[in-house]
Here is the input.
Amino acid sequence: MDRRTRQIVDVFCATSDKTPAELQACINRGCPWDQPIPAHAMRATGERPSPTIPLNIAAQYQRHDNLAVLANKALEEGRPELLESPDLVGKSPAYLAVQKGNPLCLGVMAKAGANLHRAIPHVWQFTDRQHNNLTDPNEVSMPIHHALVRTVVSFTTRTCLCCVKNQKEAKLQVCTQCKMAYFCGAECQKKKWLSHKRVCKKIRKGADLVAFHNEMPKQKLVDEDGFLPFDEVVDNDLDLDDDVNEEDYYDASIIWEWYDPGTMKWNPYPKHINRSLSGLQDLGSPRYMYKPGNKDAEGNEEREQTMNPPNNVATNHAYYSEMIDHHIYTGCGRMMRMRLADLSQAVPLLKECDECER
Here is the structure.
């Protein structure tokens, strides 16, 4: 192994196993802190080459202290793009922080100014000694993950963590501790406190390790490349014969909508996707998988997720338990809801929304 490769490996080892002081000393010696392990060195050990750099490794190993060292270094060097450094399947450190249920790491990445629109995982990960597997979202068994996801959604969309009102609908105030969760008033904050308190102070503790910014940076309201656009023709096509009445096969009284934080409006899904969302929910499925503009991808997924998926697999997984429509390849998630056409209010499928409407 050549000297440079050895130095890079030393930073990787310090990131996962050493103290922040030891990691900083390694960086001070001139060891490359922003490079992946060279492909030839990976192949020599039988491993697949990866774009992963130490900053991502810190999130993978849940080393919030070393994550802060590397995030501060990236900001000091004027290289904020490193905050989005991907792992082998394209997931950022902020995404991994939420997926692993680690509020300390999330606090570091939020304060550093990472793109949290891409930190809304569609599957969550058990990371104790008995489990290291991915599972569908489950608030009961994984309450910390649930609290982190709701906090990130509130932060990126600037909506009340409880009732989902936006800035046009209510005067929102940010949580004085974590500086991420928004609430429209004391009543909503009280209703969600049992959940939010699981992560609030730890987010703040992680954020305090990033000294480059004095305040928690605000997110852009929209990630322009977060989702594929709908195809008005394909996604509205119900595949009905010309002599068939649409009313006989399509229930227009049930409307599924997705939230656009840029316009602060709820938008209806195209008819085909609307019908499929209702149908899969009625069948008791935990999710509906689709790809805008490609019906052949409906219900299909990769056995092992890659950064460049084939064209015939679903890009979006809409989960009913969290009421979030995920683009599983970008890591983005958008709120969704179901309402009845003759009612002004959305049908509250989430407990917190149900309680908040009363």
About this structure: The chain has a mean pLDDT of 92. The two ends are 65 Å apart (CA to CA). The CA atoms of residues 228 and 292 lie 6 Å apart.
